[in-house]
Amino acid sequence: MGRVRKPDDDQGAMDSLLDTMTNVVGILVIVLVVTQLGVGDAVQRIGETLQIDPAELEQKKTEVVNLQDQQQLLKQDLQALQTSDEQELTAQIQRLQVDLDKNVLDLKNLRQKNRQTEDAMAKQKKEVEQEAKKRQELEEHIRSSLAEVSSLRARLDETPERVVLPAKELRLPNPRPAPQGLVPVSLICTKQRVYPLAPLVFGELQKAARSRADSLVRTRRKDLYKEPGKGIDPDEFVKAFSRSPLRNEYYDVQMRAGGDGYPKLTLNPRENAGIREKLLENKSSKFQKDLRSIDPKKYYIRFFVTSDSYETYLIARSIAKSYGFSAGWLPQPAEWKFTGNMGGEIRLGPPRPAPPANPQPAKPPPKKNVID
Prior knowledge:
Helices cover about 55% and strands about 15% of the residues. By secondary structure, the chain is an alpha+beta fold.
């Protein structure tokens, strides 16, 4: 069971607290007073015992001044030393920068030289490889040639000696002018064959070519007349004309633009066409049938002869003479092809300029010796 406080007990506790606090304050006041008294006595004692010597004071002042001067000199030396070090460092940095730039340039030149050397080595390597390949091909060709020579020698040893035939004497035709009033009938002797020409087949080819050209101009004007005032474009015309072949039993026909602006037809003799030498003397051959259909009083025979078919021409000329025809020839190189005008009104390129008011008459070409 707890104790019940009385009002008189609380009052007694507060009195005891107040007495204690009063005692503490009093003690603090006494300590403060004693301290103040001790400090004053100490100050008085120090003042009585401290004595300053004027000479020593002046000496100390002089030392202080000297120390200040020495400090100033040291500062100047330090500043000069710092300046000298900075200049030296700057100069050293500049020298290093120059060396660095030189080394960079040398390195760049060395790299460029290395690249050039590598390119040259690569090129030389490629050339060496090509030379090795060529040498290998040449060695292979030599081995093949030696094998072929050995084979030919073996065949030659097995072949009996050829009998030398007597020399054949050939008489060259004696050219002279063609008879007046006779119209030429042209033939081509090439590839050891005789090919009929004008007017036997070339007229038909001209007619077919003109028909195709007229049809192209009608149906493809936009493609052919590309630029106003410049006429038919020659390249487009030849390209359009050549899309489908034009040929007969003897020739393949090739179209081209002539220098005078008019289309030209080039006749390429077809392989295995024409009349062979062995059939020329056959009376049922087309060559002799054509000769029998022509009047020798109105026509003469003109041969275009390439260099590989001279003997063929001699045979054909002899047969033509047997039918009473005058005959002549025009020698041509082996690669020669007959070219003639297509005819008609079609002209390629810009229109021809108007002729002068009083044109000078052209000199007639010299007459050719076309018969013999």
